Amino acid sequence: MSLLEVRNVSYRFPDGTYALRNVSLQVSEGEFIVISGKNGSGKTVFLRNLNGLYTPASGEIIINGISVKDNPYRARQSVGLVFQDADSQIVGQTASRDVAFGLENLKIPKAEIKTRIRKALETMDLEDHADQRARTLSGGEKRRLTIAGVVAMNPSIIALDEPFTNLDYPGVLQVLKILVSLKKTGHTIIVVTHDLDKVLAYADRLVLFENGSIAADNRPEEAIHSAISCGVRVQFSGNKEIDIKGMTWLKN
Amino acid sequence: MAEKLIFHYQARNSIIHRIDPRIKIIIIFTISAAMFTVNPLQFAVLFGYVLSGCLIARLPFTRYKKELRFFFLLLVVIVLSRWISSKSLIPSLYYGARFILVVAAGLLLTDSTAPEDLTLALYWFIRPFKFINPKRTAIQFNLTVSFIPIIFDSVLEIREARKSRLDNTWRKPVKRIISFSSQIFDLILQKAEEISYALESRLFDEKILHGSIAFRKTDFIVLILTIGIIAGLLLVR
């Protein structure tokens, strides 16, 4: 059984325009999926539907066998959403308090909260910033903090909306390292990004959105050929070949 | 930008930062009340006490230079208006000194106390007044305080963007203020929407107050010391 099943989901904005049209997608446990597409193609709206923040006009989203519509609270427990704008997501005054926010909402015992905060900050290499004011962290650190806040809640799926936006080169590398380590530890990851050259090497599947529909959903080697027609930049090597394994900024 | 905001928490590990926020609030209120009953010499002792607190808390006054200009302007207005009405300089300066003490005490409280802790302290104080829904009031206070740096950042961002496109301060001021305000309002609404989604996605529960506060022995030592000093000052009048 799939961990996530999206069945014919359509989403309409209040003004009547469709952001998603009959989107269907299945995600299995441990998969790393990259979603791409040009601006306004429906990627962010799709993630917000998964998290139960938006309610589809039609169709159904099932996570761990439970309908998001019937139980949005469970959906938010199951899908940890990392927003594009880290500043909007940071609610705690210090890094550790920000991580604690979601855990306290889950009503986890205090001792367990402490352990999870320490572990999440260690994983994100932020343990030295635990008591630092969250808003004074660098862009890369803020992004890692938002991921820590989500990872600590132990969701089944971690969905990241444009995690490389506004990051400098070291910031991108830091986030990439975290994604790779999360993948290695068996997390199910969905990354929405325009920057395929930064992350596609780790993807099991590439899903391309176009005008609110899925234009391609396949192994990166296959789906990449539809990328340009979907408005996504792809860098070809000298002999017009696409080197998927080379599509990462992490070089060993 | 957020780290430069005046009247905003500066995370540090000083004894002042560690004092329970409830004790800090009681101390600040006691000093503020005592200020109006003491003579200038006793006032100097109180002033020194609060200033020592600011130094121990290592408040970054040099970073506040720009924001403090506004308070300096207010200080000048207070002293001048008092001087014009009373025609005596020393009492007018004394009024100014009281104003400085109030600002310093406020800075000491807000810059050394995390908003979550202030929220919990506020809740502790208003808990008996059930008719105002203490928990909801405290959480709304916390959300408002957390939102302030975002508003400041938005205002600065818009101001700089307008400046970069040669927005002229003195040309058509009314039109300019209306356009500037509506732009800020739009951006703040957008950010508020994003924040509310972010809170919701992390299972925000309006019934949960985040963090915890607990009295420690040192809190009572500081409280007794402060009350002792004030009582001593009042007794030797």
Q: What can you tell me about this protein's structure?
A:
The complex is a heterodimer of chains A (about 250) and B (about 240). Chain A is of the alpha/beta class and about 250 residues long. Chain A has 9 helices and 10 strands. Chain A has helices at about 45-50, 70-80, 85-90, 95-105, 110-125, 140-150, 170-185, 195-200, 220-225, and strands spanning about 5-10, 20-25, 30-35, 60-65, 65, 80, 155-160, 190, 205-210, 215-220. In chain A, β4 and β5 (about 65) form a beta hairpin. In chain A, α4 (about 95-105) runs parallel beside α6. Chain A is globular, with a radius of gyration of 18 Å. The model of chain A has no long low-confidence stretch (mean pLDDT about 90). Chain B has 9 helices and no strands. By secondary structure, chain B is mainly α. Chain B has helices at about 15-20, 20-35, 40-55, 65-85, 90-110, 115-125, 135-165, 175-200, 215-235. In chain B, α3 (about 40-55) runs parallel beside α5 (about 90-110). The interface of A and B includes residues 48, 77, 91 and 105 of A.
* Fraction in helix of chain B: over 70%
- Report the C-alpha radius of gyration of chain B, rounded: 21 Å
Cα-to-Cα separation, first versus last residue of chain A: 36 Å
Give the tally of structural domains of chain B: 1
- Please summarize the sheet with the most strands of chain A: 6 strands, mixed
SSE succession of chain B: HHHHHHHHH
Secondary structure class of chain A reads: alpha/beta
Beta-strand share of residues of chain B:
under 5%
Segments of chain B where pLDDT lies below 50 for 5+ residues?
Answer: none
Radius of gyration of chain A: 18 Å
Oligomer: heterodimer
Order of helices and strands of chain A: EEEHEEHEHHHHEHEHEEH
**Pair with the biggest interface:** A-B, 33 and 29 residues
